[in-house]
Description:
The complex is a heterodimer.
Chain A: E1 2-5, H1 6-22, H2 26-38, H3 42-61, E2 71-79, E3 82-85, H4 89-103, E4 127-133, E5 138-145, H5 147-150, E6 154-158, H6 163-178, E7 186-194, H7 196-206, H8 218-231, E8 247-257, E9 262-269, E10 276-279
Parallel strand pairs in A: 1-3, 2-4, 7-8
Antiparallel strand pairs in A: 2-5, 5-10, 6-9, 7-9
Chain B: E1 5-7, H1 13-17, E2 24-33, H2 36-47, E3 60-62, H3 90-94, E4 100-103, H4 109-118, E5 121-124, H5 130-134, E6 137-144, E7 153-167, H6 174-182
Parallel strand pairs in B: 1-2, 2-3, 3-4, 4-5
Antiparallel strand pairs in B: 2-7, 5-7, 6-7
The structure holds iron/sulfur cluster (SF4).
Iron/sulfur cluster sits between chains A (66, 68, 146, 148-149, 182-183, 270, 272) and B (79, 127-128).
Amino acid sequence: xxxxxxxxxxxxxxxxxxxxxxxxxxxxxxxxxxxxxxxxxxxxxxxxxxxxxxxxxxxxxxxxxxxxxxxxxxxxxxxxxxxxxxxxxxxxxxxxxxxxxxxxxxxxxxxxxxxxxxxxxxxxxxxxxxxxxxxxxxxxxxxxxxxxxxxxxxxxxxxxxxxxxxxxxxxxxxxxxxxxxxxxxxxxxxxxxxxxxxxxxxxxxxxxxxxxxxxxxxxxxxxxxxxxxxxxxxxxxxxxxxxxxxxxxxxxxxxxxxxxxxxxxxxxxxxxxxxxxxxx
Amino acid sequence: xxxxxxxxxxxxxxxxxxxxxxxxxxxxxxxxxxxxxxxxxxxxxxxxxxxxxxxxxxxxxxxxxxxxxxxxxxxxxxxxxxxxxxxxxxxxxxxxxxxxxxxxxxxxxxxxxxxxxxxxxxxxxxxxxxxxxxxxxxxxxxxxxxxxxxxxxxxxxxxxxxxxxxxxxxxxxxxxxxxxxxxxxx
Lengths: 280, 186
Ligand code: SF4
């Protein structure tokens, strides 16, 4: 049986937190490049140009892309044939977040009790989503999530009769109401089906997909294209100042659901799509 | 595209009357920073009839919670935060002579009215461009509420800080008008 020391998990998580906040992945950079070419508003083009400069400065000088370095959302896939040594995996990941945010001079943006609202001082705890998978590997994806876009996200339990049209309308309404607040151009994560929490989790998971990569199901890929087109007709544009690029991409994930349910979750992500993955 | 207008705070009522929604500006000079916690404290003082720790007359408040400054740097990433969270406190500060605010996102109808009543403007900065904007900051010092840490009130000295006028004193609103201009109606 393969073994893995939790100390390594801590080190890797720390590095992922820093890299995610300093360096935009090539998929995001190329989506922003395409957005700059497509945008017809000169103000919008100017903003997209500034976002490129920003990404270059952040990577070069190792300054966060955005000061809201987020709450750390961590997706973990644990191979069921892997044996972990040297302590608790959850604590190892938490320690990695603590170390990464301290060493990287990242902002500590987590309050302990959500009603008392006292900063925990080290950006822990992270929000961890676990999945047990076949094999003997450990996959860790860190997605630092800022509040500007998270706060404009929404979930609705539709009636099955509302169907595809109802789902589309809800997604459009969510982006429209969010306007400039979530720092468009956006990546829109959509989860349809399951139960309330499953839809929300799918919407978040959809944000891990490389920006613009399509759902492998051709019908869902067509739905994603149709949603991008209608969102971009809203006119919101880069930073909400007017323009034709409001969404860089829409990523849809679906799951079977109850005969009486149609949950739809929309998780908005700003243009600063920060995600980094490592396989151990 | 028109050349950006140069602005150097303190910002007078006269300077504000020349600003229209959609104009790009480059700000050089002093800005004050404040977020939720500092706003709450300032408004609590005003409600008790006490003086503010810093004068807001003709000043610009930048809504920002920078990331920590790494060694050898003045400030970390420092882009705008969502302004709407400050809306409940803003009219009281505008009544104190606050002349401008920099942030991102919608303001409430009450704030938009107060902008017109007190002759003040709302600027938008590029959200998520915190690394780029940090290059415009030449110095930062705490001027009130040091106990709030990153939420303390700082005085930033900036040079050519880029922003866009979102709401002017004439009711102009770039979020509304920009969107109308580019929306495709079917
Ligand atoms: S929404 Fe994203 S880009 Fe905008 S301030 Fe928040 S984390 Fe930064």
